[in-house]
Specification:
This protein has helices at about 10-25, 50-65, 75-80, 80-85, 100-110, 155-160, 165-180, 200-210, 230-240, 255-260, 270-280, 300-315, 340-365; strands at about 5-10, 30, 40-45, 70-75, 90-95, 115, 135-140, 140-145, 160-165, 185, 215-220, 245-250, 285-295, 320-325, 370-380, 380-385, 390-395, 405-410, 415-420. By secondary structure, it is an alpha/beta fold. The protein has a 6-stranded parallel sheet with strand order 2-1-3-4-5-6, sandwiched between helices. Strand 5, helix 5 (about 100-110) and strand 6 form a beta-alpha-beta unit.
């Protein structure tokens, strides 16, 4: 039996992968430790989405390689040579090779490096798992995507779209609920194209899951705008179910259509705007989360301000801001890059406006009263989510994860609502 330390970074799909790896570790008779100093072997589930993340991964690998090491997640497929230069003895496990986790862990423990990067996982459902949060069940509904974004490494690591069957996903949801989960996250590389390869779609999946008995909430993960028109009407209908958080993560990336074409995003700004309008027209309150990239190589000043004008018009509740960074293997890697100081300037402008919008939107919630599902412990108290998936903090150390209480919002910050038990 070995003591094993595991840490994870990136998207919710990566955290779902780390839960599966942890489940396999315990099934094989090993022990998960809470302090890396106690470990006989280290595992890191990596993300490679941008330069800042890549640099963080390199830093972590440097600190973890003093013991037998398994590098899992996206980085082994996108930056294999960089990892091997840094940690020559580290074993590598690809994001679609999790069924080899036990074998690669045991091999590494015995001093033998092993590399498993093939796309061999038929499904990631109904595998052993150890949840990072007992109140939240993270379920991958598929892997890969059908997008051709010129800036993105994700397809290099995750591959083509491979959706899991609705019945198999529903059985996994039932298991999570029976194990005590109150919040179900549906995640994948791109939820918007779920099912296109097997003759179904996301609304069909949502409708099946909401028919499952018991009290639980569903958070729908990221979906790219280019796929939404195909499913929009049915998607909006599926969101009317009270079990679905009124929340959507729909990355626009740029407010200029020429830049979107250069990114090969497959959508226009009008598609994004129309989707947001329809959701807000239908629902009393609806949380909009989006992603923005500033400084894409072909973005000029006027096109940048098209993005600023769009977010000022739409006023998304959440703006995940990234400074463009070229990633090896992507189509935009060889394009002439914008000066880094100019990218920083654009990022600063966008960041300040995003904060103003967030504060403006959050102030509208002051005085709201309603039910909150508590799903995360913090040093200052406990955090929960209301029907619109707004993060709500209260100073309370007695409330347990998974409990629901009535809360009144008393004040806000840029990033959250703060309240008291009502």
């Amino acid at each position: 039996m070995a003591n094993i330390w595991i840490e994870s970074y990136g998207c919710s799909a990566n955290f779902a992968d780390s839960e599966i790896i942890s489940g396999m570790i315990l099934k094989d008779g090993h022990k998960l430790v809470k302090n890396m100093r106690e470990a006989d072997l280290n595992i890191i589930v990596t993300c490679s989405v941008k330069d800042a993340t890549f640099n963080k991964m390199i830093n972590r690998i440097t600190k973890l390689k003093n013991k037998p090491l398994v590098v899992a997640g996206c980085l082994p497929k996108t930056e294999k040579n960089a990892i091997e230069r840094l940690a020559i003895n580290a074993s590598l496990l690809g994001p679609n090779s999790l069924t080899k986790a036990s074998q690669i862990i045991n091999s590494t423990l015995h001093g033998k490096k092993q590399i498993e990067l093939q796309d061999i996982d038929k499904t990631k459902l109904n595998l052993p798992k150890i949840r990072l949060n007992p109140a939240i069940g993270i379920i991958e509904i598929g892997k890969g995507c059908i997008n051709q974004c010129t800036f993105c490494q994700t397809k290099i690591s995750k591959g083509e779209l491979d959706s899991y069957r609705i019945g198999d996903i529903a059985r996994q949801v039932i298991k999570e609920i029976n194990d005590g989960c109150k919040e179900i996250w549906l995640t994948s590389t791109d939820n918007g194209c779920y099912g296109f390869d097997i003759g179904c779609n996301l609304p069909m999946l949502i409708n099946t899951i909401t028919n499952i008995q018991n009290d639980f909430m569903i958070r729908i993960g990221m979906m790219n705008p280019m796929h939404v028109p195909k499913i929009r009407n049915d998607l909006i209908k599926s969101y009317t179910n009270k079990k679905v958080f009124k929340f959507i993560h729909i990355p626009i990336q740029s407010g200029n259509n020429e830049v979107l074409r250069d990114m090969q995003r497959g959508h226009t700004s009008e598609i994004f705007i129309d989707t947001v309008k329809k959701l807000r027209d239908k629902f009393y309150k609806f949380t909009i989360s989006t992603d923005i990239i500033v400084g894409f190589p072909t973005e000029n000043e006027e096109q940048f301000f098209d993005t600023i004008n769009l977010i000022q018009k739409i006023k998304p509740d959440i703006i995940n801001l990234s400074k463009y960074s070229r990633r090896p293997g992507t189509k935009s890697f060889d394009l002439k890059q914008i000066d880094s100081n100019e990218i920083k300037r654009r990022s600063k402008i966008t960041y300040e406006i995003a904060n103003e919008i967030s504060m403006e939107n959050n102030k509208k919630w002051i005085g709201w009263k309603g039910k909150v599902l508590f799903d995360e412990n913090t040093n200052a108290g406990i955090k929960g989510r209301n029907f619109a998936y707004k993060p709500i903090f209260i100073k309370d150390h007695k409330t347990k994860l998974g409990q629901i209480h009535n809360v009144k919002i008393t004040h806000v910050t840029h990033h959250c609502l703060i309240g008291n038990m009502n």
